Amino acid sequence: MSLRVTGGILRSRRLDVPGGRGVRPTPARVREAMFSIVGQHLDGRSVLDGFAGSGSLGIEAASRGAGPVVFVERDRAHGEVLSRNAALLDELCEWRLQKGDLLSSLDRLTGPFDLVLLDPPYRSGLATQAVIALGERPRLLSARATVVLEAEREDLPPVAGCLVREKRRSYGKTELHLYRVQEAG
Length: 185
Hints:
- The chain is an alpha/beta fold.
- The protein contains five helices and ten strands; from the N terminus they run E-E-H-E-H-E-H-E-H-E-H-E-E-E-E.
- It has helices at 28-38, 56-63, 76-86, 102-105, 126-135; strands at 2-4, 14-16, 47-50, 69-73, 95-99, 113-118, 141-152, 159-160, 163-171, 174-181.
- The protein has an eight-stranded mixed sheet. Strands 1-2 form a two-stranded antiparallel sheet.
- The radius of gyration is 15 Å and the shape is globular.
């Protein structure tokens, strides 16, 4: 199975998708909507792609000028596919793969990140856990940070630590939740 990058300099390039049960790549129309919301020109924005799978979300961001990109993926086979896909970025930006579970990796990551893209397994409870954990670690987020979380009709908190949800958009069963860093005051 493969999918294509939807925009930017790598538009139409094929990405491999890891096999196995439970693998659910973000559909092209949802990726297009995501980058319509966060912007098509992400020049120099640092990116964290959590629950990275194939790396498609981080690669989409880099294709639009973002970088460096940090991918976090716990599954070894998925990490191998991700590394092959991310080789497309070698000429575009710095990237690295952090192996391990996102929630346990947060304290080992160095930020700040300008854009955080999260696509945890649906119905796992990880969407809520991830946004709360990120909101409790403001050192990982720049003052202009945007967090985009993909979930399946999950009731996520409107406020999580330093994060406030600004938008919630539905695309069939899939929802995108856009959070921004709360201004101090």
